[in-house]
Design brief:
The complex is a heterodimer of chains A (about 290) and B (about 400). With about 290 residues, chain A is an alpha/beta fold. Chain A has helices spanning about 20-30, 45-55, 65-75, 125-135, 160-170, 185-190, 220-235, 245-250, 265-270, and strands spanning about 10-15, 35-40, 60, 80-85, 95-100, 115-120, 145-150, 180, 200-205, 215, 255. In chain A, strands 2-1-3-10-4-11 form a six-stranded mixed sheet, with helices on both faces. In chain A, strands 7-6-8-5-9 form a five-stranded mixed sheet. Chain B has about 400 residues and is mainly alpha-helical. Chain B folds into three domains: about 5-80, TusA-like domain (Translation Initiation Factor IF3), CATH 3.30.110; about 85-120, no CATH class; about 125-395, Ribonucleotide Reductase, subunit A (Orthogonal Bundle), CATH 1.10.620.20. The chains are: A alpha/beta (about 290), B mainly alpha (about 400).
Chain lengths: ~290, ~400
Amino acid sequence: MTSEGGVLVLGAVAYDPKVVTIWDGFRRWFAARGLPMTYVLYAHYEHQVEDLMAGRIDVAWNSPLAWIRASRMGAARRLEVQPLMMRDSDCDLTSAFVVRADSGIETVEDLRGRVVGTGAVDSPQATLLPLNHLQEAGLTPGSDFTVQRFDVGVGLHGDHVGGERDAAQALMAGEVDAACMLDANHLAFSRDGTLPAGATRVLAQTVLFDHCMMTSGPSASAESLQKLTDLLLSMSYSDPEARPLLDMEGLKAWVPGRTSGYGPLDAATDALHFYDAEGNIVAADYRP
Amino acid sequence: MQPTIDLEDLGFDSGAHILVQRALRSLSPGGKLAVQGRDPALRLHLAAWCRQHGHRIEFIDAESMGQTAAVITRGQVEADRWSGARRAGGPRPEEMLDQAPATWGLAARGALVEEGGPDSGFDLDTKVAVWSDLAPRLYAQAAAAQWDPATAIGWKTGDALQPDIEAAVVQVMTYLVENEQAALAVPARFLGRIHPHYREVVQFLAVQVADEARHMEVFARRAGLNGQLPGTSTVGGRASLATLLAEPDFALASFLLSVLGEGTFLNLLSFLEAHGPDTVTREVTRLARQDETRHVAFAMGHLEFQLGLQAELHDRMRAAVERRYEALRNTAGLSDDVFDSLVILSAGSWEPAAITRGYAAVARLEREMAEGRERRLVRLGFPSSEASTLSALHTRNFM
């Protein structure tokens, strides 16, 4: 398969031009340590997951939603799909519902009849998880409240921060009553002035969830996967060659992949009819 | 006792991270810090910030109303980042290193430099290649001696000269501008190559470049002062200057430009200061000469330092003079227009007796130039017979 000749093929989604710099850097770093690797860039996660299933890539650097789809497809087709590695920064995230400080909205129930701004249709942190949180609280999207989606980078599973930023700006402009965003993005928007100090309030938070997952597919050889995980675990922030790569990719250390943090997104995927149990796309308005 | 900080109402949108960071820095990795505060977004932000910075956090749920409380366990990340860091020498010149690592790049000398980073591309990165012990002192002098062309020269006092005499002054000024442009370009080309670890050298050369910029201005301004167009520029003159720009070695370029070229120019500028027919000409050449004296002193100091460490430099200096001579052998050298203009402006009139005096003065100037070059070559360790030979090979274009 693709591991022929011992070269591991990794897939990544090109959500930003820096992705080339990142994976070029990893490629050189791996090569210098005895793991020949090449990479393929995708315009969206659905294509990447389909290629992982088809054996055209050995390993996919997956969004949380892409991990869920890959694991569902793997189970349905009896293909070997394994969680490999995560970033330390992928564990225990939360998303916030943010309202204007003077809006008078004090509880989730107060969002009834209001407009809620979300990220792109396929954003786990800014659309799927927050909408399911409201649904579980008894507010059905589209009927109990209006969803104003900010579809930036559809297919990138929310990796593009633009949708969340647009929602935050719409909140400040009074176009939506609440905006959904990842905790780290709320911190960034609070510090860069998108959300002026004191102007907004955190109404509620989702449960904790995990983010990206390095996923292996059926074509990967056990030997190269072992080498890959060994090398990733050996990357130390004290190593001046590895540190710039870790900084660019937004982590301090790689940790073994855990599947325990995907329950909330798995549930949201079903509840909001995004993928079916076999990993087919069922969301009608999703066009990556 | 576990250290505790109370952020009160301060949020991460207003700088709370500064207090948290400061408190964490007083702990070793693994140490615990209790944090509390009343900012409504504190819980959200503290968790995200800790995740981004590699610290662990646990919230204490028995919070009083409106209060967030947590315990942060300091991570290893900051210690890891600085584990291979080292001081880039020390701030004082005597604490500089013999070789500056490429990855230090633009870091201030003496700074604690994080390990790694891109190569800076400063290829003149050894003390022996660039340093002179005179650099700090000459830079300080140069910075203190900067003058403003607008006010240092009495531009409005221009004496009315005969048009022919004025034309001679304009021709000499045109020649000076051309030469000053070369004298600016040569150090400017090396400036971006010298490792900033040797910053006093960079500072000195930067002021040298600024000096030449002023010289270009005042000579051009004197040329146009009385409404005449600039004089001529010859291929021979430009060919001579082109060989200066082509020298890739810093020591040899300083030798050719500053010791031999600007050294020769000291005599020329003194000559113009003494024989200039108008006040402005005398003033601009006096101010330029003061600056050029510094440039020559720096280059002499730099070469003396280098010669102390690498005796074979003499051979390379000799070869550089000979190479330049060969390259210019079939060119015209100093333009007749410039030579004649020097005679005319020192003669001050068209009387045969005055021309005789002017011609003799220029001949004396050329002898003084040769003697000055020989003196400097001897100071740089060349035997006097060889100094005389090498001086004679110097370009007839003076610079």
